[in-house]
């Protein structure tokens, strides 16, 4: 039992000395690993947001500027005219 403990102690000391010797390289590898994980998370968020945009429904064309917008976000008037924003709607209405 003492021999196994001594062998484990020697291995731990060798690992500690190696970690001290190559600490800069170890820190560099850890930073690369963290940045890869953050990039994966960003790509995953972009994919999820793209899926949300795609699944938001059919697109409609603005009568003023021609911009395509999701049907839920569009401003619909009684005559079936669709606008992308209130500014487009206000500029298309003639002044009295």
Describe the structure.
- The protein has helices at 2-21, 23-54, 86-92; strands at residues 59-61, 68-70, 75-76, 82-83.
- With 96 residues, the protein is mainly alpha-helical.
- It has two domains: 2-54; 59-92, no CATH class.
- The protein has a two-stranded antiparallel ribbon. A two-stranded antiparallel ribbon has the order 3-4.
- The longest helix is centred in the middle third of the chain and has 32 residues, at 23-54.
- The protein is rod-shaped.
- The model has no long low-confidence stretch (mean pLDDT 89).
Strand and helix layout:
Elements: H1 2-21, H2 23-54, E1 59-61, E2 68-70, E3 75-76, E4 82-83, H3 86-92
Antiparallel strand pairs: 1-2, 3-4
Q: From N to C, what is the helix and strand string?
A: HHEEEEH
Structural class: mainly alpha
How far do the termini sit from each other?
Answer: 99 Å
Q: Number of folding domains?
A: 2
Shape: rod-shaped
> Ranges with pLDDT <50 over ≥5 residues?
none
Give me the side-by-side strand order of the main sheet.
1-2
What level of helicity do the residues show? 55-70%
Strand content: 5-15%
Task: Please give the number of β-strands.
Answer: 4
> Mind describing the biggest β-sheet?
2 strands, antiparallel
Separate helix tally: 3
Radius of gyration: 31 Å
Query: Can you give the mean pLDDT?
Result: 89
């Amino acid at each position: 039992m003492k021999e196994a403990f001594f062998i484990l102690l020697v291995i731990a000391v060798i690992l500690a000395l190696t970690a001290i010797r190559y600490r800069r390289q170890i820190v560099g590898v850890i930073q690369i690993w963290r940045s890869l994980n953050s990039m994966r998370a960003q790509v995953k968020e972009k994919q999820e947001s793209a899926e949300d945009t795609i699944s938001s429904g059919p697109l409609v064309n603005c009568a003023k500027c021609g911009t395509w917008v999701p049907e839920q976000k569009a401003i619909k008037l009684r005559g079936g005219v669709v606008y992308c924003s209130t500014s487009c709607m206000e500029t298309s209405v003639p002044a009295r």
